[in-house]
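Budget justification aside, the reviewers requested a transparent look at the raw inputs and outputs of the sequence design task funded under Objective 1. We therefore reproduce one unedited record. The lines immediately below are the structure tokens for a 133-residue chain.
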């Protein structure tokens, strides 16, 4: 069971930078290939930047070449929620933090990567922090 974190937009704005707020709370996207964790291979746990919930492990991260950090699986399925998103005129699946409902990125299926799952969790670097292990 996840302990939910709920805050008003004003509270989130006081805790996050304007760019973090735009991505995490308003479902924005950071520019490709510029994110802090796009190419990192550091071992650790990726946490939600808004609430610090554990989301992904470096052992599930892979280089997809898409310009954002990619994972083939979350730490545990209950750590994220998935919501159908038609905002760009096509069907995509948005990924949110299950603890605070912050936007993380999108998950894509059937792209043919050589990974244990047929999924690519395409996550904004700015949505996460990395805790080295």
């Amino acid at each position: 069971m996840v302990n939910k974190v709920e805050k008003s937009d004003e509270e989130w704005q006081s805790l996050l930078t304007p760019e973090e707020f735009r991505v995490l709370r308003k479902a924005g996207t950071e520019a490709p290939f510029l994110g802090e964790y796009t190419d990192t291979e550091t071992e650790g746990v990726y946490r939600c930047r808004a609430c610090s919930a554990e989301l992904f492990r470096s052992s599930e991260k892979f280089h997809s070449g898409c310009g954002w950090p990619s994972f083939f699986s979350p730490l545990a399925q209950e750590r994220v929620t998935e919501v159908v998103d038609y905002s760009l005129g096509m069907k995509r699946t948005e990924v949110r933090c299950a603890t605070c409902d912050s936007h993380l990125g999108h998950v894509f299926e059937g792209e043919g990567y050589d990974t244990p799952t047929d999924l690519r969790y395409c996550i904004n670097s700015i949505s996460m922090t990395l805790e080295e292990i």
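Residues 9-15 form the longest helix (7 residues). The mean pLDDT is 95. Computational costs for records of this kind are itemized in the attached budget.
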